[in-house]
Specification:
Helices cover 11% and strands 50% of the residues. With 404 residues, it is mostly beta strands. The protein folds into 3 domains: 1-31; 33-86 and 285-404, no CATH class; 87-276, no CATH class. The strands form 6 sheets. A 5-stranded antiparallel β-sheet has the order 1-25-24-23-22, with no helix packed on it. Strands 14-18-19-20-21 form a 5-stranded mixed β-sheet, with no helix packed on it. Strands 4-3-2-26 form a 4-stranded antiparallel β-sheet, with no helix packed on it. The chain starts with a helix and ends with a strand.
Length: 404
């Protein structure tokens, strides 16, 4: 019996550790502020899948939804260690369905899924002792869902020495070819970025194409041209386009856009690029407070007017205005306004923060959901702290919205 005492003691210690963890987590969470969304008008089902992401007091991550506040401490010990508690819901679902294939795959930008296939394209980098630079290698995995057959191979990037970082931004599968969009940051200048579309022949297991986007575009001598990928609802699914916002900055002030921006696209089907035809008034009045967004056939752009915010849905293929919806927009003198937005299923979700943080005011958060098809506001709520204190709203730092 003596040989069994050590495993027994170890088991007891493990159980005590886990028990202590959950007790401490429960005590810690109980002391944290509980934020919630107070309904002012509309149907709460309109925001049932909406999540507000942020931090309390700079270091305590949280999510707020119609069900209240969810802190990281509410997660299991395994999720806390692995970080699984903060994975996108899409990733969680894929991990449950395709556990073996999804092992080690956590970035939505690197994945593609349709009815038949699940595909992954990742980039690993290694130090090259001979050149002193980096060597980048693509890892390609394609799973046939029905047969469960998997094709796996690697392909080294030949001109690796030109880049100090290569990052996958989107993956699409078309006619037995995997198209991988990457942003490549150039050696020698950290602000120089190239967008590439690498094409892989999946049955042949090899790289067959490398297209550099926007290679012919030039900027004035004292300016720098930037291309920013426009967010989409879920680009893990098949998409015909990837959309870019284009803007100029002065070389001495690269964070400050100069002049009005434009929008362009890359068509995965025919490997072409082009400029989107946006109505002139929408393009000239677009607000930098509202991040552009696209889903399926439309791009959504925001315009802040005197006391209103207008959301316009512009058709990607013909540039015509499909729909518009107008929301109230508080903009009192001396107030600081922040805006977070997301678009999904023909609806726009906007969260406004009003209040001067530097002045010590308690901020006011207004949440709106608007239906682009009916051109109406379907929900209005306010982010509050339970107990009607709202004093700890000042310690709330938000960074975005997402749809579960």
């Amino acid at each position: 019996m003596k040989k069994y005492w050590r495993p027994g003691v170890l088991l007891v210690l493990i159980l005590l550790t886990i028990g202590t963890y959950y007790v401490q987590a429960a005590n810690s969470t109980s002391k944290l502020p509980q934020y919630y969304i107070k309904k002012i008008s509309g149907n709460e089902n309109e925001i049932k899948d909406l999540v507000i992401n942020g931090f309390y007091s700079a270091n305590q991550r949280l999510e707020v939804s119609k069900n209240g506040t969810d802190y990281g401490n509410d997660r299991s010990l395994v999720e806390q260690i692995m970080g699984a508690g903060y994975f996108d819901s899409t990733i969680k679902e894929l991990q449950q369905k395709y556990r073996n294939f999804m092992r080690g795959k956590r970035m939505e930008d690197s994945l593609y899924e349709d009815d038949r296939l699940l595909a992954y394209a990742g980039v690993k980098d290694q130090h090259d002792e001979n050149s002193g630079g980096r060597v980048y290698t693509f890892n390609i995995d394609v799973l046939n869902k029905k047969s469960e057959n998997k094709i796996t191979f690697e392909s080294q990037l030949k001109d690796s020495h030109r880049y100090y970082m290569v990052s996958v931004q989107d993956v699409q599968y078309i006619d037995r070819e995997l198209k991988v969009l990457t942003s490549n940051y150039m050696n020698g200048n950290s602000s120089d970025e190239e967008f590439h579309v690498y094409t892989f022949d999946i049955p042949a297991k090899k790289l067959i194409g490398d297209q550099t986007l926007f290679s012919n575009e030039k900027a004035p001598a004292d300016m720098k041209l930037h291309h920013q990928i426009v967010n989409s609802e879920n680009h893990i699914k098949p998409n015909k386009y990837i959309v870019f916002k284009n803007y100029l900055t002065k070389k001495t002030e690269e964070d400050i856009p100069s002049g009005k921006s434009s929008f362009s696209f890359y068509d995965y089907m025919d490997d072409s690029t082009g400029e989107l035809n946006i109505p002139k008034d929408v393009l000239e009045n677009q607000s930098n407070e509202i991040e552009p967004y696209y889903e399926e056939s439309d791009i959504y752009l925001g315009q802040i007017l005197k006391d209103q915010l207008k959301i316009s849905a512009v058709n990607l293929s013909n540039g015509k205005l499909d729909n518009e919806v107008v929301l109230p927009h508080k903009n009192g003198e001396g107030d600081s306004i922040q805006t977070w937005s997301i678009f999904a299923g023909g609806k726009s979700y906007l969260l406004f923060k009003q209040g001067n943080d530097l002045g010590g005011e308690t901020p006011v958060y207004d949440l709106y959901a608007a239906d682009l098809d009916t051109q109406s506001i379907v929900y209005h709520g306010e982010l509050k702290e339970k107990g009607n204190k709202d004093s700890r709203l000042k310690q709330l730092e938000l960074y975005g919205l997402k749809i579960k």
